[in-house]
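Hi all, a correction to my earlier message: I attached the wrong file for Post-segregation antitoxin CcdA. Here's the right sequence:
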Amino acid sequence: MATNSHVTSHKKRTNLSIDSQLLFEAKLLGINVSQSAEAGLAQAVKLQKQQRWLKDNNQAIESSNDFVTQHGLPLAKYRHF
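and the right structure:
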């Protein structure tokens, strides 16, 4: 069964407070402020999700690292590199 990986997004108007000099310069340079703000927010969300995942999974990661330290890599004898 195929799934549609495309997620439809809806734009929502919002009010932002942005440094006036920065906004002025962006407009002079022809920067699309809405697109730039959205890209920056998307990056911040991605980073926050990564940080939360690492925090939430820290115990499992440490446990796995401890196992490898004590016992070596599983199936290491089959590695040819």
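Sorry for the mix-up. Residues 30 and 80 are 53 Å apart (CA to CA).
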